[in-house]
TrEMBL record:
CDD domains: GSH_Peroxidase (cd00340). The keyword Metal-binding does not apply. It comes from Sporosarcina soli. The lineage of its organism: Bacteria, Bacillati, Bacillota, Bacilli, Bacillales. SUPFAM superfamilies: Thioredoxin-like. One of its GO terms (molecular function) is peroxidase activity. Belongs to the glutathione peroxidase family. This is Glutathione peroxidase. InterPro entries: Glutathione_peroxidase (IPR000889), Thioredoxin-like_sf (IPR036249). Keywords: Oxidoreductase, Peroxidase. It comes from the Bacteria.
Length: 187
């Protein structure tokens, strides 16, 4: 199976093939409108603007599996992102990223790359891990997505190359994105 074999749903219900993004470096993110990581929309938009002319795209998938932090449907989520953060990268319909009803694309992504354990020495990760133990202990098992704003980097050839936890720094994500982008043509 390849990432290009998957279908995704736009907020208006239109079905789109991931084939649409063949040849592009992709950063695929499960998002939420009312999460402590929602500020990352601003960072993601800046990254998108910086690299979009180098065959880079960010794909946002709203998810309401973590603390009811995205109660809107796909249309309202996309509108929220555009209005509050100027998001112009593609946003899709609401998805589930764990458990029954999990979107097939996210099942594929989770199993293509390894994940790292949350570091109890990092305050934000310790807080997140504590909350997960209390509310969603099953999300700490296996390759489950632990929270909103987990990111998957897909190289232009379709290979899923990296998974980032929501607490990973923007600089780390950008550094990895740059490794997989074609080099700009100098004049």
């Amino acid at each position: 199976m390849s990432i290009y074999n998957y279908l995704v749903r736009k907020p208006n219900g239109e079905i789109l093939s991931m084939e649409t993004y063949r040849g592009k470096t992709m950063l695929i993110v499960n998002t939420a409108s009312k999460c402590r990581f929602t500020y990352q929309f601003e960072e993601l938009q800046k990254m998108y603007e910086q690299y979009k002319d180098r065959n880079f795209v960010i794909l946002g998938f709203p998810c309401d599996q973590f603390g009811n932090q995205n109660p809107e449907d796909g249309d309202d989520s996309a509108l929220f992102c555009q209005k509050n953060y100027g998001v112009s990268f593609p946003m899709f319909d609401l998805v589930m990223v764990n458990g029954e009803g999990m979107d097939p694309l996210f099942s594929y992504l989770k199993h293509e790359v390894p994940f790292r354990d949350l570091d109890k020495e990092v305050m934000a990760e310790n807080i997140l891990k504590t909350r997960l133990k209390e509310e969603y202990p099953e999300y700490l098992e296996g390759r489950n997505i632990r929270w909103n704003f987990t990111k998957f980097l897909v190289a232009a050839d379709g290979e899923v190359v990296k998974r980032f936890e929501p607490t990973d720094s923007r600089l780390l994500v950008e550094e990895e994105v740059e490794r997989y982008l074609p080099q700009p043509i100098s004049n």
